[in-house]
Amino acid sequence: MGIFEDEPHGNICDHQTREIFPRREPGRAGGRFVAAAWPRFGSTEISMTPPLRIAYLPFYVDYYEGICPEFPREKAANARRCAEALARYGKVVWNGELIRDANAASAIGKKLAEQNPDCAVVFTSIAVFGAIPWAALQHLSCPILIWNAQQIQTVGRGYTMVEIVRNTGQIGTQALANTLLREGRWFRVVTGYEKSRRTADELERFFGVIRTAGALRKARLLAIGQLFPAMTDILMDETALQQHIGATVAHVSNEELTRRYLSISEAEVEETVAGMKRTNQVNELTGDEILRSSRLCASLNSFVEEHRADGGTLNCHVGVCLRNPEIGITACYSLGVQNSMGRPFTCTGDLPTAIAMLILKKLTGISMYTEVQVMDEKRRAIVIANSGEGEDGIRRKGCKSCVRGNANFNGVHGRGASFAYPLQPGPATIVSFTPTAHETEKRRDGKVEIAPYPSIPVSPYRLIVAEGTILKDPLPDAGALAGFFRFKKADLHTGYTRWLEAGAVHHAATTFGHWSRELKAVCELLNLDFVEV
Fold it and tell me: 398: exposed, middle or buried (C-beta count within 10 Å: 0-12, 13-18, 19+)?
């Protein structure tokens, strides 16, 4: 049957994942930050994740060889070229051979199932009959991509019957897509000229979806400090979250944070200060505020490294930080630095928005902690802003990254360091993640109550998505990250009303570009309710 990943064929199986955005491993020395290797804030680094395991299934039938005996050689070369392209996105699990009949397909499908791939990519090199690829795919439970890798860009005058048959891969794609529909299987299709930029973009987006869904299932979140009192919209049933999605949450108490803060060495504080000053313009901060912000930043990082967290939340309000006599400042700078390292953190104990941010970070590389604020009827837009938790990937080009004293909150020892700069104008997407009451029947005091709207929602979790545009108009006096967002698919009042009625958390996540199609696919894979504004 051939050899699989544990028996490498050439170098196809040895390639590592190519992330959508470049990543670098931060410098370490004895578990501490190395000043010279301090990551530039917002370098769009992605935290290290295992490479995707891509089951590759190229199919061929000899039914048409009477028309052209060169088909087997041509299609084998096509399959090899596609495998090499896929190797940019993960480890390709393939035996190096075309799959020619249902018996071979079934055997290969069983073997691939043992490899536990993250997804399967099917390439129908010619008009393959639907039963052949299905014989393999019926043994696999992973998401499926059918790649119609067209070999030509245009049809010339000499387009003979041989050329017609040579380019019938799309027939095999249609036959398989119909079969998968009948079988109730989740799949996507990438179609287009094999070597086009568009095809590469579509492949990147598909594998971004797979990587994002997988990352959410395995996510390790960290919650530091008590919750902000009375904020009901940031609550999360952590047991239900693990049962339904797979993400887990570890906790650090106020007291543990204080002890860690006091234990950070002066050398670590100095290294963190140097990193802050080297990569940012620092204004309106006292020397004590800079030292406290840097000590808190190093404290958060030590907990993140200890728990191997993918993201989380630190509530710097109340007695956790602001009213804590030992700390006494906000944590915005600390959260922004973690975000720059691919590990998004929210404030106030908001775990739902930490999940929204992690989704965008894994999918796009950019995730800005956001409040969706007041309507500006003149601009036909809403204000989006935060208190200084940075995201350099959305900083306006030509504007320096500024770190300054927090413009909103003063603690017992002054203001914490916060990022401040205008947002890059252009297409953007805002996302909110929230638990829901999805059951059609609820039991209370031993009695069964029927929910009034049983069809809405359909999942215990909802993702609310709004595509739009960040306007050129800045908010120069906001003192943090701020801009104007105009809805793409609705007018101002309709869009904002839909956002509110969808039940969004009062915090959200913002990324650059339009991503609703990919976010809908993530929701389908994770069984999340998807609402688009």
Answer: exposed
Phi-psi region of 143 (alpha: psi -120 to 50; beta: other; left: phi over 0): beta
Nearest to 402, CA basis, from 414, 392, 394, 412: 392
**CA-CA-CA-CA dihedral for 514, 279, 351, 387, to nearest 10:** -90
Report residue 449 as tokens. 């109550």
Cα–Cα distance measured from residue 268 to residue 296, given in angstroms and rounded to the nearest whole number: 11
Which segments of 254-347 does DSSP mark as H helices, in order? 254-263, 266-279, 287-307, 332-340
pLDDT in tens, 208-226: 999 999 999 999 999 999 8
User: pLDDT confidence of 34, banded at 50, 70, 90?
Assistant: very low
pLDDT tens-digit map of 110-145: 999 999 999 999 999 988 999 999 999 999 999 999
The model's pTM? 0.87
Concatenated DSSP letters of 382-447:
EEEE-SS---GGGBPTTPPPEEEE-SS--BTTBPPEEEEEEBPPEEEEEEEEEE----SEEEETTE
- Backbone phi, psi, residue 25, to 5°: -85, 120
